[in-house]
Write a structure and sequence with these properties.
heterodimer; A: 418 residues; alpha+beta; Butyryl-Coa Dehydrogenase, subunit A, domain 1; Butyryl-CoA Dehydrogenase, subunit A, domain 2; Butyryl-CoA Dehydrogenase, subunit A, domain 3; globular; B: Butyryl-Coa Dehydrogenase, subunit A, domain 1; 3 domains
Chain lengths: 418, 364
Amino acid sequence: MIDFEMPKPIAQQSYALKTVAENMMRPVSQYFDENEHEIPWDYINFMHMAMRATGAGSLAPRESKKNGDEKKKDRPPIGYQSLAFMLETLAWGDVGIYLVTPGGGLGAAAVEASGTQEQKEKFLARFAAEKPTFAAMAMTEAQAGSDTSAIRTTALLDRQTNEWVLNGEKIFVTGGHKSLEESDGFVVVWATIDPSAGRAGMRSFVVEAGTPGIKVEKLEDKMGIRASDTATIVLQDCRVPFDHILGSPEVVKSPTTTKGFKGAMATFDATRPLVAATAIGVARATLELVKQMLADQGINVRYGLPRQKLTNIEREVIDMEVMLRSAWLLVIKAVWMADMKKPNSKEASMSKVRAGDVVTRITQKAVELMGPIGYSRDTLLEKWFRDAKISDIYEGTGQINRLVVARQILNYSGRDLR
Amino acid sequence: MYSFEPSDEQKMLVDTIKRYASSDLRAGAHDADEEAMLPPSLVEKGWELGFLQASIPEDYGGFGERSAVTGVLAAEEMAWGDLAGALAVMTPGLFALPVLLGGSEEQKQTYIPPVIEAEWLPYSAALLEPHFDFDANDLSTVANPEGDSYVLSGEKVYVPYAADAPAMIVYARLNGTTQGFIVPKDTPGFEIGERQKLLGIYALPVYRVFLKNTRIPKINRLGGDIGHDFAPILDAARLAMAALAIGVSRAAYEYSRDYAKERDVFGVKVAQKQAIAFMLAEMATEIEAIRLLVWEAAWMLDNGKEDASKQAYLALSGATDMAMMVTDRAVQILGGHGYVRDHPVEMWMRNGRGIATLTGLALL
């Protein structure tokens, strides 16, 4: 039965999150934008405390726990949906600050998506510890962005010590600094165990903070999301125990399997709609502020009029609302499918394509519509314009996600459609 | 709880309509467009699927309950077959649904059963007017009370099957609001003009209608003395057009996708070129996004949610742009072949532009 009623637990959580966004994020939004590389500890500590109190622990999407309550057992799972709503609201507050939320982020998501039960227990427990803890994912290299199979970081097995030895350099690691130097976290590093094998050689490894041979070499200065650190990480004869390779023994051992690569892609099916949700948060913040600023000038959009009778500004606002709502519904559908355990690769990428488009267009249009006010730093519109653009780049650029959608709808392999 | 899964009943209905849309509407669409005529048997067959009848309670001769969600699912399938054919099959709803939504009990008892219980009869409605900035909430056609009558005057356009309609609802401005009036054929001063030729939907006969001091008894005002609220009718019209837009767009998208997978270019298939593949990916994403917007609007209307009217308006706004974007690209993907009438995409592009204009030619 088609239903658009927001589940009650989500509605309840939304109220609390909005309060956090309004009180912990917005007031310091501009400060952490203007002081890149400073860390919003107040927010981090507050969120850590709140998540510990509610038992949330990790922000990573995961299987909903078995619930003893008979009544609750029959309810359909809403884990991903609830996470998408949470992220949307936090990003509405400030997407840069949201990115420094402790609890594991993409690193934990990768462990959730492709780790074994033992690995999940081993690596994820730390997020419930007393101090806020971070984790990151290191995929991109200087020569390998969207083409992840071109990575050159190597992981060679030292049979004498049964350790993996990692060598290489990773860039654009979101939260790498906080994961390795500001907490006892970890970074999930993608590397090849056989550089001649292409995708079949790709595996992911958990490298914990304090491991000799891994270090943060540089922090990027960015256009937006400045509250979040983006690190370059160097691995030099960095040794990790054998069981830090993520996945089942089959994945670990087979020389030909592409399951490692597919594990990365499966992570994306889970995380793309969530990144899309953060884009929606920024877009909604922008649209709400534009409507508020117009209302302050006595301009209220006259819904219901034929287009021919609308002013240009009204048309723009209506178009933005259509874009925003339809993109958000795509996100909700994609996470609903994830909760229902339906394959959602196509919908996940669709939601990311749409959300990336929508947030860039809405924020760009907002700055234009608000004229000399929009372009100035008197409001957050220009910041959101800068924050928005990354949504169309990270977690798969708009173009990569179009490629994913196109292959799905055309029933093409990567070879058919390059 | 969110769910994007239609009920089993809805799936059955959609399957039934899908078969008709494919084997009848789509199969006959090209000739119907060329000949500017829909075979009566084709329309009758669609009518017998009971799409409208299922929206009308048993008390008035139907066998169901109105559901906007079910309506949009059905309308998408119909329009996937052919927009003109879909509008023809749905034409009697232009009369029956406003009576259901806004009529007095007596009017429902009197007017709905003859529409619902018979074979397809072109009961119709006249809403649109010949102004570029036509506004359903601010009509030029007026109704003036005179004794026991209302006197209607004005000009209407795009009235489906007006020449054959046993009766129609004529919308006119009364005290600043839009009100419906039941006008039987042969009412003095009620003149049917020539059949109009449009950019698209050639197969659907639409007419100008003139109201020259047309006098009708006051009891023919929809809702009786107190009249009715026009908003639910306009919501139903917007939602219907948005749902139909999805069908037209999906037809064009699927056709151009399949063509691109067959057609060779530079040693590969057209669809293997990213320039084309990305267009198709965007078309698919657009349709999926707007479909969800339309579903949500329908669900809000069914559940009496605040802002449901606004959502229906936004859904139609999105659907209007979707239809043009998708159908234009479908023609583009077929290139020169898309421009010739051997392929249906040029017809869909002409029909697609109609979504912006045709609100009021279908109700759900």
